[in-house]
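Summarise this fold before class:
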Amino acid sequence: MRPSELSELRTLADYTEWARAYDPQQRRTCESIPNGRSATSASQIVSNVDVIGLGCYCEYIGMPHLWVRYGVQQTGLNGIAMVGRTVGNDYLAGQKTPVARLYVAQISNGSSRVAL
């Protein structure tokens, strides 16, 4: 999903609206944004989802993993704050949950190892 595409943002808004209207279990909605997006980019989807997945390829950017996790977390927290929402698990009350999705791969002998 590209926040810069208005049609894609409208589809995301429709999906959330339909999920609220037709899902008797009122499950959370989720959207992920890829590696290296800004808080502004995250803020564009915050209003339309409950859980914001923030991806990062640790080795790709060549940074220590702790710093990467902090950076990804700040992107989510700042994106949520930019639209006046609060962080929390009560999604039916409008709270938002940022989730870091870190991809760590070590290539050796043609195989990879993935850790979250």
Remarks:
- Strands lie at 30-33, 51-57, 97-105, 114-115.
